[in-house]
Each structure stands twice: as structure tokens, then as C-alpha cells.
């Protein structure tokens, strides 16, 4: 600090300035040695700390001629840190931890970009990044296949979507061949077969609504180009499920109408009629009869409700007009004065 004070503020004579610069040069040399020692000890951050604090003096006082020495320290330190990230990525790859390998490789590449003066190329980071992303993509495909083996089709579908998205995000590193389409074909065909089998079990257990949902889901797979072999009579089975569900809905609608739960009854009736229309069941005699019964039940209950409302209004008016006596009734019927 005293040496710097002499050089910066006291305007020394040439001899004094020369002596001060000599002393400052010795101090700088010592700092360079300590920075080298930090590098050798595997502590590049400490080495860079010396560079950050003391290298600017080399620019301020060119006579010291120490810039190259600090640059050498900084170069080694930055390359050590860069190599550390590369080593972390390689170690993660060796453990098949592709996510960690990708993260470390990306960090290495970003570090090289920020320190390109000291690290001229990031080819090693790019190579590791390519390897990590390829491995990560393959791991997604393997995980999806495993989920299919376990019958976890929903999770397999999500894994497939992730793999497709990942390949789209990194087209330079991830270049899938036929494995994605093979995976999609396997998933759709196995899910189609499994859903149809489950629908059959639900139908056999008289769980017709569940069966219908499952049959309809199975039928959606027949629209996919990957599914080429269709299950015979699947649409007929779905139609039979729809017939049974329609019966249930119309039966519910009739019961709800008799209980005067008309809004719920109309909803159930509407759902039943929708199924009848969608599955072409209008010629079914039993369903036609049940539809008529629901219509009659709704009409009868609506009439009963209308009569009750009329009676309520009538007796309210009677009470107001006649004070609760027969005079009010005669008045309502035009009986006064007759």
C-alpha cells in the first residue's frame, strides 16, 4: 500500500520511482508464485483471485512486465475449471446418469464461451453434450418400453411424448432412427388390445358404463395408422354396451321423474337418447317403449306440478280475497252479485 501510495500520489523523482517499482515488482513476483502454487494445489479459484487482485497493476505499471505471467496463471486456472466440468460429465456418463452428464457438459460449454480468451475450443464439451443427449434420449425410449411391459400405458405415452419433444429440441445432437415410430406402434397396438380386453371384463361383470367407455377408447386406436389389425366385432360389442347403458339411463330417468327430480330426469333421458342416436338404436323395440315411458312420466309429473302450482295460487288468492271464507271462492268465480 505504501509503495502504491508513493507511485500514485507523491510524484517521486526518477530514482525513488525506480526503487518503488523494483519493490512492487518483487511483490508481484511473489503473488505470481503464490498463484502458481494455488494452481498446483488444485485450487484454481484461489489462483484466479490472485490474478483478479494483482494483475491490474501490470497494466497500470507496464514497467513491471508481469502481464504474461498472470495470463499464464489465469490460462491454467480457467482450463483446470473447464476440465473439471468435462470430468464431471464423463463420470456421469460412465454411470449412465445422462441428465447430470448433460448438465455438466452444458456448464463446460458455457464456461468456455465466457473464457474463450483462455480456452479457444469447446469441442470436448460439445462431444460430451452430444453423447449425453443421445444417451438421455435412448433412456427415455427404454423407460417407455419398460412402462409398456408393466402395462402402464399412460405413463409410457408420456415418456414417448417426452422423447419426441426432446428430439425436436435438440435435432443436432439427437437423431432418432426408426425407434420412435417402433415405440409408438408397439404402444398403440398393445394399449388397443389391453383396453379391449378390459372392456370385455367390464361387460361380463355388467359394468356397462365402464365397458362402454373402454370400448370407445379402444375404438379410437383403430383410427391410428400404426394399428393395422383390428379386433373382430369390437364395434358390435360397443353397440351392445351402449344398448345396456341406454336402458339404465332411461330407467333412471323414469325413476327420477316419479320422484319429481325433473332436471336430473331430463339429463338422464338426454344422455340415453344421445346414445341411442349415436349407435343407431332407434329401431330397438324395448328402448322405444322405455323412451315413451320416460316421456309419459315427465309429462305426468309436469302436469301434476302445474296443478299443484295452480292450486297454490288459487288458495292464496282465495285467502286474500275472502279472508278464508267461501266469499273469496265465489268472488273468484264471479259469484258476488249473482
Strand content: under 5%
Instruction: Round the Cα radius of gyration to an integer and report it.
Output: 43 Å
Proportion in helices: over 70%
Shape: elongated
SSE pattern: HHHHHHHHHHHHH
Tell me the major beta sheet.
none
Look at the structure and give the mean pLDDT. 88
Secondary-structure-based class equals mainly alpha
Quaternary structure state of the chains depicted: single chain
pLDDT < 50 runs, ≥5 residues: 324-338
Per DSSP E runs of 2 or more residues, the count of β-strands stands at 0
Number of helices: 13
Distance between the termini: 126 Å
Descriptive labels:
mainly alpha; 13 helices; disordered C terminus
Give a short synopsis of this structure.
This protein is mainly alpha-helical and 338 residues long. The chain has 13 helices and no strands.
Question: If you had to describe this structure to a student in words, what would you say it looks like?
Answer:
- The protein is mainly α.
- It is 79% helix and 0% strand.
- It is built from 13 helices and no strands.
- It has helices at residues 2-9, 14-40, 44-60, 67-94, 98-114, 123-149, 153-169, 179-204, 208-221, 234-258, 262-278, 285-322, 326-332.
- The longest helix is centred in the C-terminal third of the chain and has 38 residues, at 285-322.
- The radius of gyration is 43 Å and the shape is elongated.
- The protein starts with a helix and ends in a 6-residue tail after the last helix.
- The relative contact order is 0.04.
- Mean pLDDT is 88; it is low at 324-338.
